Structures are given as C-alpha cells and as structure tokens.
Amino acid sequence: MSHRRLLVLSLGGTITMLPAATGGIAPTLGAADLVNAVPALGDVADIVAESPARLPSPSLRPGHLVQVARRIEEGFAAGMDGAVVIQGTDTIEESAFILDLLVGGDRPVVVTGAMRGADAPGADGPANLLAAARVAASDEATGLGTLVVLNDEIHAARFVQKTSTTLPSTFASPLAGPLGLVAEGRPRILGRVARLPVLSAAAGAPPEIALIRWAMGEDGRMLAVLPGLGYAGAVIEGMGAGHVPADAAQAIEDLATRIPVVLASRSAAGPVFTETYGYPGGEIDLIRRGAIPAGMLSGLKARLLLGLALRGGAGTAAAAFAPYQ
C-alpha cells in the first residue's frame, strides 16, 4: 500500500478527556495531541490534524457534523485519500450516519473514539485511532461509505449502535453484524454494503425533528403540540414492527396532516413492517393514515434522515426513505 494522506478531525469526547479541576474528566486534548501520542500513525499515512471542536458528544448537534462533512469534502477535493473523525461514543452512531448521508464518493470516512479517558489504565483511544487510520488509508474500505471502527471491529454507519455504557466492546450492528475487523495491522473486510443516495452538505443544517418512543398505555396526546413547538417533522418509535395502541392512531393521523411523520421501531434491530398487521394501530393502519415507514433505520437515524431530507421541502420525505426499505 502506497503512503496515503489522511485528514484527522477531532470533535472531543472521552478519547480527548483528562481530569478536570471541577472533578471527573473533560475534553482537553486536540487532534494533534492524539496523533502525536501514536507514533505508529506515521507509518500509515501523512496526517493533517485539525480540531473543529472540543466537546463531549452529547453537546454535538447535527449542524456540527454538516460542517465536518463539508470540511471532509474540501479535503478530498485537495487530494486527501481518507478521513478520520474522532468524537465521543455517546453519539457516534448518529454522527457517522450523518456523514454517510452527506459525504459522497468512494474515499473512506471512519469515525472512532474511546470508552476510557486518555489517562485511564488500559485507555483504548490510541489503539482505536490507529485502527481507524489503517481502515481509512486502505483500499479495502473504498466504496463502503462512512464506517465506525472501535475495538478492532469495522461497522457500517447505517447499522451500528452503542449497546453498553461501559464496555470497550460497546459497538455492535445487531441487524447485519460488523463488516470486518482489523487484525495483524490490516483491515479485513468480510462483507460489503452498497452506497445509498447522498444528500448535499451545502444545504446546511437540518430543521428540528421530534423523536417519540412509544410506551405501553400512551395515548399520543403530546403529538398535537409538536408543530407549535417548532418541530418540522416527527419520528415515532413504535412497538414491535411499528405499532401503537388503537386509541393513539388518530393522533398520528392528525399529526401527519401537519408535518411529516416517520414510523420506526423501538426494537434493537429489524425493519418496520409494511403489510402484516392490519389492526387499528398496526403498521398497515398507520401507513394508511400517512406515516412513512423507516425501513431498516433505527429511530435515531430515521430522525437524522428526515431532517436532512426536509431541507428540500416536505414533499421529499417519503422518497428519502425508499432506499432503506
């Protein structure tokens, strides 16, 4: 493999955290600090390291990632062979999906982070960064879109989920499994995913989208207030394959006449159904009432896709979800 050029962008997160005077750990290190702490990176690629933010990942907003996508596009136009984005693990699955939606072309984009702070015994940040760089610089990752690499596993952005609050093995892809792994210092891709339509990063940040997780006995009374609160759309995480109680179906129909409503599942994996359950509140009923099925996407990711799609107007929502069915 010839020597590559990588753009490394750090947004903060546990991988950058050191003890703070106020107690606990807080974002401290920048991209250059992280890169300099892993000398083996010099054998992987020539690296341009930048720190667009130093935030814990719960404070990241979609607009931050839209700007990151634009910076990656600029880097690729200037000849970068791949990009690594470093951030906190709490929102990696969302950030990676935004980048997958916005960064086109075949060059690899890899998101990584750490579950342990930089000064913790057994800190996993350096190993994760090195593995991510090896994937981003590889021919094997070409054409796979945005990937998440931690704990030596390679995951597709559209499938990956954080599954544990504490374990270094927290990231999994329950629907499809990892695409591969890093072993003996090189990526080994075991499966591939096709690129799906890419949206424009130049269109800016998405509008606000509500995410409602349905619970037993909920009747949907809160839905009526969402448009007045400024939400441009809503994602409903229904029970099972996309279901709500019968007495909530009308509330969803009423909301769908005002803003786009997407139907996802609160389950960990599996697509929303479209043609199996016909009872009031089942997915057939809700789709007839105007809900758009999220397909294979989790509620978190359906929320992001809906927001980015709505930058083109309300009429673009259903078409945006069609490739994910």
UniProtKB/TrEMBL annotation:
<protein>
    <submittedName>
        <fullName>Asparaginase</fullName>
    </submittedName>
</protein>
<dbReference type="InterPro" id="IPR036152">
    <property type="entry name" value="Asp/glu_Ase-like_sf"/>
</dbReference>
<dbReference type="InterPro" id="IPR037152">
    <property type="entry name" value="L-asparaginase_N_sf"/>
</dbReference>
<feature type="binding site">
    <location>
        <position position="57"/>
    </location>
    <ligand>
        <name>substrate</name>
    </ligand>
</feature>
<feature type="domain" description="Asparaginase/glutaminase C-terminal">
    <location>
        <begin position="209"/>
        <end position="314"/>
    </location>
</feature>
<dbReference type="InterPro" id="IPR040919">
    <property type="entry name" value="Asparaginase_C"/>
</dbReference>
<dbReference type="InterPro" id="IPR006034">
    <property type="entry name" value="Asparaginase/glutaminase-like"/>
</dbReference>
<dbReference type="Pfam" id="PF00710">
    <property type="entry name" value="Asparaginase"/>
</dbReference>
<dbReference type="Pfam" id="PF17763">
    <property type="entry name" value="Asparaginase_C"/>
</dbReference>
<dbReference type="GO" id="GO:0006528">
    <property type="term" value="P:asparagine metabolic process"/>
</dbReference>
<feature type="active site" description="O-isoaspartyl threonine intermediate">
    <location>
        <position position="14"/>
    </location>
</feature>
<keyword id="KW-0732">Signal</keyword>
<dbReference type="InterPro" id="IPR027473">
    <property type="entry name" value="L-asparaginase_C"/>
</dbReference>
<dbReference type="InterPro" id="IPR027474">
    <property type="entry name" value="L-asparaginase_N"/>
</dbReference>
<comment type="similarity">
    <text>Belongs to the asparaginase 1 family.</text>
</comment>
<feature type="domain" description="L-asparaginase N-terminal">
    <location>
        <begin position="5"/>
        <end position="189"/>
    </location>
</feature>
<feature type="signal peptide">
    <location>
        <begin position="1"/>
        <end position="20"/>
    </location>
</feature>
<feature type="binding site">
    <location>
        <begin position="89"/>
        <end position="90"/>
    </location>
    <ligand>
        <name>substrate</name>
    </ligand>
</feature>
<dbReference type="GO" id="GO:0004067">
    <property type="term" value="F:asparaginase activity"/>
</dbReference>
<dbReference type="InterPro" id="IPR004550">
    <property type="entry name" value="AsnASE_II"/>
</dbReference>
<keyword id="KW-0378">Hydrolase</keyword>
